[in-house]
Design a protein that fits this description.
Layout (H helix, E strand, L loop, with lengths): L6 H7 L2 H10 L15 H11 L2 H10 L7 H34 L5 E3 H9 L3 H4 L4 E5 L5 H10 L2 E2 L4 H5 L8 E3 L2 E9 L14 H6 L1 E6 L2 E6 L1 H15 L6 H11 L5 H11 L2 H13 L21 H13 L9 H11 L19 H10 L8 E2 L2 E2 H16 L2
Parallel strand pairs: 2-5
Antiparallel strand pairs: 1-2, 3-4, 4-5, 6-7, 8-9
């Protein structure tokens, strides 16, 4: 049976492009990054955009020795970093407008996830902590007033509130002056309807919040412990460990030094997310970004049958930066994910792909079905493409590279 991973083996399991992405989280992350000219430029550029780490990768590339980065790759990173910079400027402008509008309306909102961290970083926080959208948490009864305040400030509503809210825990995304790259989600809860976690309402999030000053404004954001617990569970549960991996690791680097394990334990237990956070922290540890003092006990991840823990760890590493590309398929990925979660959500079939918005696995599943004429060539009932993925997967899992 396969034993538990060590950092060296986990690092070898990552594709060369993924190693560079991890290295951009914290320069080197305790490992020697691969040669830049050994990475397919198109693969790395696509991964950089997918993970929203264009600027961090560019900074890593510009610190590399002269000539180490192929000129075409460097140019591609610079172009994408410029786009990311424009998106960050838009998020900053929209955040200022939202803060002022909600303040005038007398509405207090807790700024969650990336937005909370960006504000804590200071004036250029949205450059330091990129994100897909701004997440705000308000009381449900305040949603109509908050939405009106945002619209008056220049945020464009996504519309269809009633239909959208029946399956989501936030209003349809707002867009800053119609820009599809700059979005805001107005939440009344932190998990999609049907989730298996304890009910923790806005009042508790407010009570656990801390205040930061951003551009002269006082803003409530989650405490470091609640922020890291929420980020870990969001990555490991909502995104099944396959989307936002760079952002999760970046949050670990930003928040972990401020925390003790006891503080994080308290937050994870109150939010009911010990198991997903345990796996998220394990991945951060294996790729070298988690301080030893914050390494949780194995019990956080729960017990798996003998011999399964090693394969489960490999699953998390393989999926972290290549959903649907490094493992045999969605059904296999989700079977292992459910084993890792220890049955969390099984009683009511409240898995992330069955409640609220679908996650990366859905798009991976659609890609898997695609091909000439919508079908793959088949050998004995097994598609040639999938057979190749099984072979590659087994080779990587068994050999560790």
């Amino acid at each position: 049976m396969l034993g538990l991973l060590d950092r060296a083996t986990a690092w070898r399991l990552l594709a060369p492009s993924a190693r560079l992405v991890v290295a951009s989280v914290r320069d080197g992350a305790g490992h020697e990054p691969p040669r830049w000219d050994a990475v397919a430029p198109a693969t790395l550029l696509a991964l950089a955009s997918h993970e929203r780490c264009e600027r961090a990768l560019l900074a890593l590339a510009e610190r590399a020795p002269a000539g180490a980065v192929p000129p075409a790759l460097l140019d591609g990173l610079r172009q994408r970093a410029r786009v990311a910079g424009f998106r960050a400027l838009g998020l900053g402008e929209g955040a200022e407008a939202a803060l002022d509008a909600l303040d005038r309306a007398g509405i207090s909102a807790v700024w969650l996830k990336g937005a909370g961290l960006a504000l804590a970083h200071g004036d250029d926080g949205f450059l330091q902590r990129p994100m897909g959208d701004i997440d705000l948490l308000v009381h449900r009864e305040q949603l109509p007033d908050a939405a009106r305040a945002l619209e008056q400030a220049g945020w464009q509503s996504g519309g269809g509130a009633d239909a959208y809210m029946s399956a989501h825990h936030h209003l349809a995304p707002f867009r800053w002056r119609g820009d599809p790259l700059v979005r805001l989600e107005l939440h009344h809860a932190v998990w999609a309807p049907g989730h298996p976690f304890p009910a923790v309402g806005p009042d508790e999030w407010v009570a656990a919040a801390r205040t930061v000053v951003w551009r002269g404004r006082r803003v409530p954001v989650p405490s470091s412990a609640w922020a890291l617990a929420h980020a870990g569970a969001h990555w490991a549960w909502s995104h099944e460990g396959a989307v936002g991996s760079w952002q999760w690791l970046r949050d670990v680097v930003a928040l972990a030094p401020q925390l003790s394990l006891a503080e994080l334990d308290g937050a994870a237990r109150r939010l009911g997310v010990v198991r997903p956070v345990g796996w998220a922290l394990r991945v951060a540890s294996l790729v070298g970004v988690l301080p030893a003092a914050l390494e949780p006990a194995t019990a956080w991840r729960g017990r798996l049958p003998i011999g399964m823990s090693g394969v489960a760890e490999r699953q998390w590493i393989l999926r972290a930066f290549a959903a649907g590309a490094s493992t045999p398929g969605v059904a296999w990925d989700r079977w292992w994910w459910r084993r890792a979660m220890g049955g969390l959500g099984d009683a009511t079939r409240a898995w992330p792909w069955a409640v609220g918005i679908g996650t990366a696995g859905d798009s991976a599943e659609s890609r898997e079905r695609s091909g000439p004429g919508g079908r793959h060539a088949r050998v004995g009932g097994l598609s040639v493409a999938r057979l190749g993925r099984w072979r590659g997967y087994l080779r990587r899992v068994v050999r560790g590279a």
